[in-house]
Design brief:
With about 140 residues, this protein is α+β, with helices and mostly antiparallel strands. The protein contains 3 helices and 4 strands. It starts with a helix and ends with a helix.
Amino acid sequence: MDFDSSMRISASGLSANRAWINVLSANLANMNTTRTEDGKPYQRRTIICESVPSQDAFDQVLEAAMGEEVQKVRVADIVPDGRDFKEVYDPDHPDANEQGIVLTPNINQVEEMANLLNASRSYEANLAALNVAKQLALKALEIGK
């Protein structure tokens, strides 16, 4: 694997983790939102990642000939989680139904914070890998002097 491929792979990981952090932050910020534009409570969202080839057209031909296929990560979609809403009894709430039940997002703050910590550490790991690749590239250039 060359320096360019390792940097592209790390950059794709940084991008995917940034998207995940943004989604988790939105989930935490809206964990008490009982009404959105469509009149329903906020629906927890999650991301779907997939691996895609890392090469350009020329790289694909060359690496296919060498038998080396490098993959990178890409955010395929950001989708609603599909969990049922929590039902809370609060007859004084403006969004309560006739029985006094309010539908709230089914977002677990502890789970979201754990996911946020995981995404943050994954981001840091990709950043460290990118920095090592950069340092190796600079050392290789110094050798050529």
